[in-house]
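In this section we walk through a basic example: taking a raw amino acid sequence and producing a predicted 3D structure, encoded as discrete structure tokens. The instruction is simple. Fold the sequence below.
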Amino acid sequence: VSYYIPIENHLAVYKTILPSLKKLGFLFDRHNQSRKAEVPEARTACADLGLAFDSEFIAESGQLPDAVKRLIARGADAIVVASSGIIYENIRMFLDITDRTRVPVFSFYKAGVNEGAVAALSSDYFQMADRLLIPMAGRVLLENAWPGEMPAAFLRQKKLFINTCQAKNLGLVIPTQALVETHGIEVEKICQ
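The resulting token sequence is shown next.
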């Protein structure tokens, strides 16, 4: 069972939220192993969607403000926080910079929305357990199925978490209905 969502899906949602989007500035954790897959996938997804790609790699949270300043100085229209807790748990360290420059922050994880990101496309972990993990465990326990022979399972239904307070702060009007219709996602609004 995996909560993975292709990066192109994330970026397509960001483009719906911010139609003027031209260049994304990604923040990656230099020590997080997922960067090895995320960086090339993000580059390809940007190219496929007609977006310019830029990135900064940080080794510790104290480097975030300067990394964000560099991305914005190079023309990033939005900041994307990759899948590292050192980044998405510390968005507040640079939120004043992005607020002042009116540059939205998007996160690959819901936890980033709680820290000030405008939105995050995510799998619902509880639904994932109920719909995928528990039935697979049942097959292993009751039918003697071998876990290694089961294909990876993904939730089809994705959830977009929107920080309505941060969107309002940046003057963004989130096209909720268009997001649901275009991307087939469920939307949950929170105010942090």
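Looking at the output, two observations stand out. Residues 167 and 173 are 7 Å apart (CA to CA). The two ends are 30 Å apart (CA to CA). In the next section we compare this with other chains.
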